[in-house]
Design a protein that fits this description.
Rossmann fold, binds S-adenosylmethionine, 20% strand, 2 domains, 279 residues
């Protein structure tokens, strides 16, 4: 067992919530700040904020943060038809990893990001570059056992505060990964409502199909999960369930699944599977 594997086994859950880890993560901020300045990435949020939305990584200076965001931008162009004119909603945008990448893609289009975790979201919201681009970031106080356990509204019944048929693309990177069956069902209905006809929903998820059951050993309703105490830490779904749920809202599979590197390695959480549904 490698040191990395052992460390991951010791620090389970949303890692920044562990007080010792949190302290260590903040201690990295000054070094990260210097590395970002040298690398021309001073505009990115500090390491301790990035860790809240993308986990603890060996990414001092933020080059991986930028690369992954850019890869998502490319995937959105390839699989969801993102153009510079697209009107885009990102659900669970965190501190803006994908927003930074889209800032150079979108011209006449626009970007709205929403999240339920205040601190990471504030990192994106207060960013001058993203503000200058007109990007909007909304905090929505929806409950999630991993990210916002005291949230006011239930994800099972929450109505997203966006008009019907107002977006070309709704996307989520590692968000259904933290949501339970009834929550996914409601969000799919909401997504179908806010998408324009022909619009697409692109998301990354852990698909259960062909995966080793030991990665997600617990089961409730349609979701399998990895952490018995806090199911929302990592959740997997079958493609059949997702397809049936989207079909219930008049949407059909239009791309994928594109299998991520995480499909056969529970510890490699970087590349989840990708699926796209269109309305
Ligand atoms: C692993 S992070 C990914 C952040 C971002 N998508 C990225 O790629 O950098 C998961 C995000 O999903 C958000 N989230 C969890 N449940 C949510 C919900 N019900 N609605 C919206 N966002 C949610 C969390 O607050 C967190 O920011």
């Amino acid at each position: 067992m490698s040191l990395r594997t052992m460390a991951r086994g010791l620090v389970k859950g949303v890692t920044w919530k562990n007080p010792v880890v949190n302290l260590a993560v903040h201690a990295v901020d000054p070094i990260d700040s210097i590395a970002r300045r040298i690398g021309g990435r001073s505009h990115l949020p500090p390491y301790s904020i990035r860790a809240r939305s993308v986990g603890i990584r060996n990414d001092i200076g933020g080059s991986e943060f930028v690369q992954v965001g850019q890869r998502m931008g490319d995937l959105l162009r390839t699989y969801a038809g993102l153009t510079p004119e697209s009107k885009v909603l990102e659900i669970g945008c965190g501190c803006g990893r994908n927003a930074f990448a889209l800032a150079s893609h979108l011209n006449d289009g626009n970007y709205t990001g929403m999240d339920i975790e205040q601190v990471a979201l504030a990192g994106a919201r207060s960013n001058r570059l993203l503000r200058a681009k007109g990007f909007q970031f909304d905090f929505l106080d929806v409950r999630n056992d991993a990210y916002n356990p005291t949230g006011r509204y239930l994800a099972t019944e929450y109505v997203l505060p966006y008009a019907d048929q107002s977006f070309d693309i709704v996307f989520m990177v590692s968000v259904f990964t933290h949501m339970l069956t009834g929550e996914v069902r409601n969000y799919v209905r909401q997504i179908a409502r806010v998408l324009k006809p022909g619009g697409r929903c692109f998301f990354t998820a852990f698909l259960r199909d062909g995966r080793d059951d030991r990665q997600f050993p617990f089961r409730a309703e349609e979701h399998s999960y990895a952490n018995q105490a806090i199911p929302g830490i990592a959740v997997a779904y079958s493609l059949a369930f997702l397809a049936a749920t989207f079909a219930g809202s008049g949407m059909k599979l239009s791309a994928g699944p594109v299998w991520g590197t995480a499909h056969h390695d529970a510890l490699q959480t970087r590349d989840q599977d990708i699926v796209v549904f269109s309305k």
